[in-house]
Automatic annotation (TrEMBL):
The keyword Cell membrane does not apply. InterPro entries: Glyco_trans_2-like, Nucleotide-diphossugar_trans. Pfam families: Glycos_transf_2. This is Glycosyltransferase 2-like domain-containing protein. SUPFAM superfamilies: Nucleotide-diphospho-sugar transferases. Keywords: Membrane, Transmembrane, Transmembrane helix. CDD domains: Glyco_tranf_GTA_type (cd00761). Residues 21-121 form the Glycosyltransferase 2-like domain. The chain crosses the membrane at residues 225-255, 261-282. It comes from Natronococcus amylolyticus DSM 10524. It comes from the Archaea.
Length: 308
């Protein structure tokens, strides 16, 4: 039997947490976990020193890109293996998570799992049907890579140096990766908390819309047409639209094992689809991870402190 390919897991985080421990426990001989932080946090360094095959990578402050993209680029540069896994620290990594991704790659090449976003504030909860469509259903059927859980190899990138250069001048790491590597998605979902306050949920909405704007303009146009059509149908035929949207959303939830009452919000979310899209396009900046970003073009990003 051919030996399993050594794997580097790149995990951007702001501190040592459960996700770090969960991934570290799944490493095989030859694997490595790179815990990537903006600053050389002593508390993280101490925990890393206690673990075999785990390293702290200091990415530094981002300049002209998002903190996440900067961290991924630093992790990629520090990685010592051919096979790379990207993941996030905001969901549970069950035993066997890494092994499944490894097997996925051996079977079909670059592979990503799909997220299920769960609201942590009232507005984020009401908007869950939007995320179920665009963040789960569309991601699965369009084979869009989700940076929270994916695997690929360096050789899948035509020009890794150019890719890393581009990462350091944009916002969306998985949006950029989508343009460089063809992925297959698998119907394994990871439950990810989103929001926390109404303000944070609105900021996320702006980021999501602008990611589609710069990385999938055709998809954005389709969203605009669909949003306008949904709004019109919901206004003109409220009762049939309520029954149809709720039933279809219940089917989507069932297909991906989402057991949440929020499918009942499908009708008001459909009414709000076009206004939410317009809001995301109209905003000139958004806050993410304590920084304010002005995303003026795919490779034109200004980074400020959140208070500016």
């Amino acid at each position: 039997m051919e030996a399993a390919a050594p794997t580097t897991v790149v995990l951007p985080t702001t501190g040592w947490n459960d996700a770090c421990k969960q991934v570290a426990a799944q490493l095989r001989s030859g694997d490595e976990l790179l815990v990537v932080c903006d600053d050389p946090l002593e508390s993280v360094a101490e925990r890393v020193d206690e673990c075999v095959d785990v390293r702290l990578i200091v990415a530094g402050e981002p300049e002209g890109c998002s903190g996440k993209a900067n961290a991924i680029a630093a992790g990629m540069e520090a990685a010592e293996t051919e096979r790379i896994v990207w993941t996030d620290d905001d969901f549970y990594h069950p035993p066997g998570w890494l092994e499944r991704l490894r097997a996925d790659y051996d079977r079909q090449g670059p592979t990503a799992e799909v997220p299920v976003f769960v609201g942590r504030d009232p507005l984020a909860a009401v908007l869950e049907p939007t995320h179920a469509i665009s963040g789960t259903l569309a991601v699965f059927f369009a084979n869009i890579p989700w940076a929270g859980s994916l695997v690929f190899e360096r050789s899948d990138l035509e020009d890794e140096a150019a890719f890393l250069t581009d990462l350091r001048r944009t916002i969306s790491d998985d949006g950029l990766l989508m343009e460089h590597v063809e992925f297959a998605t698998v119907a394994r979902t990871r439950r990810v908390g989103i929001g926390g306050s109404i303000r944070e949920t609105l900021e996320n909405q702006v980021r999501f819309v602008q990611t589609v704007r710069y990385h999938d303009p055709t998809g954005l146009a389709a969203q605009g047409v669909l949003g306008a059509a949904l709004t019109a149908v919901c206004v003109l035929f409220p009762l049939p639209a309520f029954l149809l949207t709720t039933t279809l959303m219940a089917a989507v939830y069932a297909a991906f094992g989402i057991r949440r009452w929020t499918f009942l919000a499908a009708y008001p979310v459909a009414l709000a689809a076009l206004p939410l899209l317009c809001y995301g396009l109209a905003r000139r900046s958004f806050v993410w991870g304590g920084r304010r970003y002005r995303w003026r073009g795919k490779f034109d990003v200004a980074v400020e402190t959140a208070g500016q």
